[in-house]
Every structure is written in C-alpha cells, then in structure tokens.
Amino acid sequence: MQKRQLGATGPVVSAIGLGCMGMSNAYGPADRDESIATIRAAMDAGVTLLDTGDFYGMGHNEMLIGEAIRGRRDEVQLSVKFGGMRDHAGAFLGFDGRPAAVANFLAYSLQRLGTDHIDVYRPARLDPNVPIEDTIGAIADQIEKGLVGHIGLSEVGAETIRRAHAVHPIADLQIEYGLLERGVEREILQVTRELGISITAYGVLSRGLISSTPVEIGKNDWRGHTPRFQGDNLAQNRALVEKLGEIAKNKGVTVAQLAIAWVAARGEDVVPLVGTTKRARLSEAIGAVDVTFTERELQEIEAVVPVGAAAGTRYAAEQMAMLDSER
User: Fold this and answer.
1) pLDDT in tens, 142-193
2) Active site residue 56
3) Which of 5, 102, 227, 234 could form a disulfide with 312 if both were Cys (CB 3.0 to 4.6 A apart)?
4) CA-to-CA dists, residue 313 to 234, 267, 309, 321, angstroms
C-alpha cells in the first residue's frame, strides 16, 4: 500500500482511507458482521486510515470500529469528527465546539473506540457561536495530555482554515472532493497548499452515484433527501456517470476506480476516503491506488465532467447553510 503524509506535521497514512459512516445505517441497513469483516480486510490490505464521527449511528460507528480493531490498534490511524448534536430520532440539533464540549466528546469517543488516544481529531462543522480559535485551542490541550495526536478540520472555508492554523498546526482538511464536486478548487485548495495542510477527500464516488450499477435509495437512506438524487437531477447525473463509464471501460478499470484514482491524482497532499460496507467493494477501491492517467486521459475526463457539471447541490438547503466551506 502506498503512503501519504497528512500535512507538514501529520501522520503518515495509507494512500486511501476507509470511511465507515455507512456501516451505521446512514444509507439504510448495514450488515454488522460484514462491516467488521470489511474493516479487518482493509487493515489486512494495508489501509491504515479509518474515518468516523462520534454521531454516526449516535456512537454505534465508534463501537463497531473499536470491536473491529481490538488487538490491532497500532495498525491504524483513527480520524474522528465530533460536535454533532442529535435528538432521540437522529435529527441534527446543531454543532457544539465549546472547549468543555471538546473534552466531553473526546472522553466518550475514547471509551467507545476502546483506545487511549485518537490520531486526528476534528470538529465536524464550524460552531457559529464559538470562535474556531477556542475549539482548536481546546484540542491542542488534549494533545498536551497525550489523548490526541493531530488536529484536523472539516468543511470549513479559507478564512477559518487560516485562523485555526494560527493557533495550532492543522494536519488535514476533510471536505467533499470528487469528479462531481470540485468546490474545493475555487479557493480552499490553494490555501491548504500554502499552509502545508492535506486534503482527506470524502464523497469521491458522490455517495454511490459513480457506480457501474444505478444506486437504489431505500426509505431510510438519507440520500433520498439530497438534490443530486432527486428527479431530473438524478437522471442528468447518471448520464454523466455513463459517459465516465465509457472512458473507464476503454482504460480497463471500473468507473469507481476511475473516480477514486482521479482524486488521488490531484496531488500527493490528497487522500481519498472511500466509504463501503462490503469487502467486494473494498477490493475494487483498493485497486484504484495503482491506476494512473496520461495528460490526454485527464483532458478527456475533464471534457466529460467539467467543473459544475453535476445537477443539484451536494446537500439539501438546510445542510448547505451549515457549511462554512460554501460561504
């Protein structure tokens, strides 16, 4: 497995990471045993970066990962997002970045994961009521205690990145980045590169849109509430994927491998996170690590899916409003 360093001061991780959110019912029911087997298969294949959030399944995801890595903790780096508050039905109530909340969220994550430290800890979203300096300073305090290794950010804009980095070095920014979502290229990517911060890119397959088979949305699948999976938008986006599929076929790879490899090819400072709940899909994703492109191939891909080609926003309006990265 190839390796990449997260930022100028962060850990060295596998060139592809495993996003574990889908293992806790975000996309409908997931098979617990298969999910654990998938995490362990990823580790066996050399994938070291496991990404989660303490609010995924309201703690379920962390407990699942904790079980999967038991006895093998030293083989992985755990990336954890915190701060999301939810009610009994799972609805989001906002984000809490207060220093006291940081210590509280961290304590619970350590317990659920069965570990004494988290490698990269990050606020899931910017708390509009708390200066980012206060949140980052509180995480830095946990680094001093040995409970956190490095600080990351998630879905924040250029100004917030600069303010956070001035308090403590930031290892990476987690943000959506893929063939159908390239907002990071407008300004954010230039700032992270200026400051020596890596990108861990989620949504590289556009939540299943980029697939050889059309994704099916069940009643408990939150994607059904997002614009890109609705009505004419879905039809237009599937048409884009079909064109990408033709390019992938000519190259001898799957369309998912093409998309993952395209993100990895954006630079050594970009690490794609692939979310999957099945070992078969994991093997496909790992196969993308060795895929490279000629300049002509990159131009061909660009012609098929230029910036802004996707129909619909990546989140519903109320969620888009929470994204500091979109301001």
Assistant:
1) 999 999 999 999 999 999 999 999 999 999 999 999 999 999 999 999 999 9
2) yes
3) 227
4) 11, 25, 11, 11
